[in-house]
Amino acid sequence: MKIGFALPQFHKQALDIARTAEFARKVENAGAASLWVGDRNLAAVNPKIGYGGQGNTIPAELNPAADPFVLLSIAASATERVLLGTHVLIAPLYPPVQLARSLTSIDLISSGRLLPGFGIGWSPEEYEAAGQDFTRRGARMNELLDALEAIWTTDPAAYQGESISVPLHHSPLKPARRPRPPFYLGALSERALRRVAERGDGWLPLCVVPSYLDIDGLVAQRAVIDRLAREAGRDPSAIDTVLRVNIDPDTPSQQVADALKAVHERTGIDHFMIDSMYAIHSVDGAIAFAAELIELAGKG
């Protein structure tokens, strides 16, 4: 199994982002396969839609949110081996040229270790703050992928869609990974799963240990992706999976390791991104937890 960890981006860990490089180096040295950031442009005080599209509240842990591009750049320069992922960037919030430029820079700094993951988000207020139409976020995501494809693979580059327009421009600076970095996509609904099946190089599902570990649901969702991929003329085995695992407070490391093994045995998923922000409040604690979990998951 490959195990990665979230950088100190949210909640109380975000107050120690000055230690991002130290965290990245120590977790890589402990044997981590990847390091990750998420994305939260803002947490609304009175949200129209709550966390994950449910209710009308947002966890207080998401109120402090460090910049994902800055943290990933620091991790890129502080490490040599680990993949550097985004689980997930709320991609439709960003202008495509600026998004491509930031991700290209990170990929080049890391010699091709970028693993960009995108999602459409659930917060109307984040779209409002970015001047974007929340109701059109799915369509904008589709166009954004097309625009990134053009910017990353052609020079000069241009793109014209209904909501995104990129004028013809010089685009000689390309990512290290050719023809482009892979598109990993977060998805729960069938429409989003179809986007993974038709457009994605990887899928980014989510679970919470121990409160929301639905292995049957993961199997069923992956079956939908595989079916839709075959219908689109794609090989399902070419679509990778990285499972995000949020950790509930007071969850023992052994219980997390056992959950990873159970998921792996049932689904074949072999790459996990662990986010400890809800359970561990210090960078020192997160480093120690990462080292212990890597050791436990490697046993048996």
Automatic annotation (TrEMBL):
> From its record, what is one biological process in GO terms?
alkanesulfonate catabolic process
Listed A to Z, the keywords are:
Flavoprotein, FMN, Monooxygenase, Oxidoreductase
What GO molecular function annotations does the UniProt record carry, in alphabetical order?
alkanesulfonate monooxygenase activity
List its EC numbers: 1.-.-.-
SUPFAM superfamilies recorded: Bacterial luciferase-like
InterPro entries registered for this protein in UniProt: Lucif-like_OxRdtase_Rv2161c (IPR019921), Luciferase-like_dom (IPR011251), Luciferase-like_sf (IPR036661), SsuD_RutA_monooxygenase (IPR050172)
Keyword Oxidoreductase, does the record have it?
Answer: yes
Q: Which top EC class is named for this enzyme in its record?
A: oxidoreductase
Name the domain of life. Bacteria
Every Luciferase-like domain range: 4-264
Q: Mind telling me what this protein is named? A: TIGR03619 family F420-dependent LLM class oxidoreductase
